[in-house]
Amino acid sequence: MKKVISIISLLILISCDKTESKIKKAISDKITLIIKNDLNIKTNIGSGVNRKNFDRIDIDIEKKLDTINIDALSNLKLYIKNQNTFTTVLCKSGDTLLINIYDNDTKIQFKNTVLKKYDTLSLEDIYKLNSKDLIINHNKLYEKFMKVDESSNRITPNYQEIKSDIVAFRKLDESSEKKFYRKKQILKNIFDKNLISSVNYDHELSQLNFKYFLSIVESYNASDDAYFLNKIKNIFFESNLAFNDPFVSYGFLNVFISQIIYKEENNGIVNFSKVYDLLPTYFEANPLKLFREFCLHQMTEQKESSEIVLNYLNSYKNEYDENSFTTFFEKKYLTKEKQLSVSSNLVELIDDKSNRISLDELIKKHQGNLVYVDFWASWCAPCRAEMPSSKKLQNEFKDSKIKFIYISIDTDKNKWEKAFKEELITENNFFALNYPKADFYNNFNLKTIPRYIIFDAKGNLIYENAPRPSDKRLKEIILENLN
Q: Can you give the residue ranges of every domain in the chain?
């Protein structure tokens, strides 16, 4: 009997170990934030844009106590900001952070990580101390090719001097390069001595790479010398360094496009379809492919028309065939569904279960009911500010013949899904497939949101610009049309 008990105990222990192991593995893939916010200060936790999937962390918190798990397979830089404070923190998968939000301060403590000496100290003084010889030589050349603009008191390139002595100007870059590699070696020595954590080492290295990249871009723009352009391409893109950077990969690509490829026409807004066409002038093979993927993302983010995005996506697929990027892209932006809707004059919709329906069919389905349609989007703060009032009205009229319908004009399916879950929209929830192409949007000048319209019980549009949920007039309109 004792043997049986021992075996059972052993099995229980093994089972517990496996369960604990699974929990640890699950947590090791995430960053856990434990938040204490006694004053209920509205605070945002965000991150930069991930170049690979164009997602970013964007979480609003206001509860006194909250725990948030963030998926993170690599290093992450988080921004914690509210109306009083702005704080950044570097973290990696498996980290647990205790975040205390006060009136004029935000304090962060790592629960399961011990900070190392140079995790919280600037390395700039160490760089200067160990690079004095290089700095002196660099400054001599720098003074020759840079001047102070008296009107703005800014340092600008001396274009005439640069053009007249391009060989010496290249030597200025060589001196910058020597400083760059000296700093990298100093940083590596600190890391090898275990004086800085891996995530802070990676971030510092990322910053050194990006600063030198910007320096060469500036030199190229000041000189139009192909020497600098080739150097940028070789060091940062053909090596994949820029594409693999965990912190500023998006920045590398965006700067190259806006300050080199599209520099002559850049008025603050980049035409990414035009950039897509120009890319073969600068790149080939894998860098060209990755830049094209970046441009496709940017076209959708800038709300380029579905026809143009689909044309370029088809061009991409013809050259690179179906791959993990096209699968991901089509799912994220619902391009296949949008392709079927491009030629339709109807308002084409898809629900959260991927069922297609038009607005006409939806109104017909709900005939006999008053229908209040809410056009919104995940990124529209005024839209989302109205959601609590909308829910309150729904609850108030839950036994009445009225339907509340939500139509998102988002371009990104993932952002829509995240937003409607946060807003607890559980029914009559739709994603607009052919906004703003359908005639309906143009006929009613539906260019801005939030926008609300009302159909009567017979399916007739009776208010093309109805009051928003928080407006007392809406309740009066509902009561008047229900009677």
A: 30-113, 115-239, 242-252+267-333, 348-482
User: Would you tell me the crossing angle of helices 324-333 and 413-422 to the nearest 10 degrees?
Assistant: 50
> How big, in percent rounded to 5, are the helix, strand and coil portions of the chain?
50, 20, 30
Separation in Å, CA 108 to CA 38, 91, 136, 296? 15, 11, 39, 37
Q: How many distinct helices (H) and strands (E) make up the chain?
A: 20, 17
CA 272 to chain centroid: 17
Per-residue pLDDT tens for 160-186?
999 999 999 999 999 999 999 999 999
Six token digits for residue 389:
């009032």
Contact 59, 44 (CB under 8 A): yes
Structure tokens at 66: 């909250």
Indicate the CATH number of 30-113 among 2.60.40, 3.30.70, 2.20.28, 3.40.50.
2.60.40
Q: Residue 334 region, left (φ>0) first, then alpha (ψ -120 to 50), else beta? A: left
**pLDDT for residue 408 is more than 60:** yes
Prior bond to 450 cis, omega within 30?
A: yes
8 A C-beta contact, residue 43 and residue 57:
no
User: What would the pLDDT profile of 86-110 be if each residue is shown by its tens digit?
Assistant: 999 999 989 999 999 999 999 999 9
**Which position has the token pair 């200060």?**
41
Both tokens of residue 116?
Answer: 């190392």
Burial readout 121-156 (b: 16 or more C-beta within 10 A, e: otherwise) = eebeebbeeebeebeebbeebeebbeeeeeeeeeee
Query: What count of Cα atoms within 13 Å lies in the side-chain half-sphere of residue 195?
Result: 12
Q: From start to end of 186-236, where are the E strands?
A: none
CATH superfamily of 348-482: Glutaredoxin (3.40.30.10)
Q: How far is CA 446 from CA 362, 374, 438, 449, 464, in A?
A: 19, 12, 11, 8, 9
Q: Which two tokens stand for residue 10?
A: 């052993």
How many whole angstroms separate alpha carbon 138 and alpha carbon 134? 6
